From TrEMBL:
<protein>
    <submittedName>
        <fullName>Alcohol dehydrogenase</fullName>
    </submittedName>
</protein>
<keyword id="KW-0521">NADP</keyword>
<dbReference type="InterPro" id="IPR050129">
    <property type="entry name" value="Zn_alcohol_dh"/>
</dbReference>
<dbReference type="GO" id="GO:0051262">
    <property type="term" value="P:protein tetramerization"/>
</dbReference>
<dbReference type="GO" id="GO:0030554">
    <property type="term" value="F:adenyl nucleotide binding"/>
</dbReference>
<dbReference type="Pfam" id="PF00107">
    <property type="entry name" value="ADH_zinc_N"/>
</dbReference>
<dbReference type="Pfam" id="PF08240">
    <property type="entry name" value="ADH_N"/>
</dbReference>
<dbReference type="GO" id="GO:0046872">
    <property type="term" value="F:metal ion binding"/>
</dbReference>
<dbReference type="InterPro" id="IPR020843">
    <property type="entry name" value="ER"/>
</dbReference>
<dbReference type="GO" id="GO:0016616">
    <property type="term" value="F:oxidoreductase activity, acting on the CH-OH group of donors, NAD or NADP as acceptor"/>
</dbReference>
<feature type="domain" description="Enoyl reductase (ER)">
    <location>
        <begin position="9"/>
        <end position="326"/>
    </location>
</feature>
<keyword id="KW-0862">Zinc</keyword>
<dbReference type="InterPro" id="IPR013154">
    <property type="entry name" value="ADH-like_N"/>
</dbReference>
<dbReference type="InterPro" id="IPR011032">
    <property type="entry name" value="GroES-like_sf"/>
</dbReference>
<keyword id="KW-0119">Carbohydrate metabolism</keyword>
<dbReference type="InterPro" id="IPR036291">
    <property type="entry name" value="NAD(P)-bd_dom_sf"/>
</dbReference>
<keyword id="KW-0560">Oxidoreductase</keyword>
Amino acid sequence: MRALIFERRGLDNLVVRDVPSPTVDSGQVKLRIVLAGVNPVDLMAVESLPVSPLPHIPGSEFFGIVEEVGKEVTHVSPGDRVAVYTRLFDGTCESCLRGDQTYCIQGKRIGVESQGGYAEEIVIPSRNVIRSNLPDEILASLPIASLTPYHALRSVGVGPDDTVVVIGASGNTGIFAIQLAKMMGAKVIAISSKPWVKEMGADVVTDYNGAEGTIRELTEGKMGSVVLNSLGEKYWDLGLRLVGNHGKIISFGSLTGGKVQLDMNRIYSKHVSIVGTNRGNMGEFIDLERIAGNLKVKTWKVFDLDEGKDALLALRDGNRDGRIFIKVS
Ligand SMILES: [Zn+2]
């Protein structure tokens, strides 16, 4: 099968090569991968994260069609389209038994600590897949781009009384954060310079320069009850200014850097909570798949497997205007 693979770190070492097709064990499924998403974690896997095994196939977000199943597999069959929960978990440790698969003691991220989805085929445990007939680009956005904000919003119990401020609203997770927060009944203020963000259903879209004043006016000074900052350092100060009394700042990404200065006066005087979240668990993934039929995605570019390096580089393109995908087969 063809795979996008690298032996040594660095985008220049990423090449398409024919590698042996993986074999299926009794509890596993082999998928023919259709479409894969491109996320910061994939770029980091090629450039800086410790990955295994080597040579390594990146790709942390994708979906596929079942090609072959192991003899113990009963819940999916060859030909099924499946959504893929892209974190490996053993199902037996205490975290797993409590439903917290994100923190499985034996857990691994597909595409980082195990071979990923930028390849024509992948073999993974059958417990990681569920049947789904969602559209291609939604299925390829479930494992990271939408599960991450879904878990984040659920973990602070977002509901109709909330005003959710989404920083980085045109980004991979921002697009879905807007839609999911709306589905949970919240008022959503999206911060972005892109006009199309309004189509994702935000009540108000404001640019970065006008954000503080606009939100102050809209909320009559109360500001956001929940502020999502998936971009990190560059917008940390802004996030602190936009959160109201008893508000929560959620962080699940650090594309602009992860080191910030913390003015404790601003934290305690407003009774602010800072909440770190990380992807989501299997139960949330199943719930998300059920409600994802109404989600929209904004696609910017679709690359072929041969153009993997360009696809990853496009993440850093200042003109990026929506999601980037790799069409695998
Ligand atoms: Zn476990």
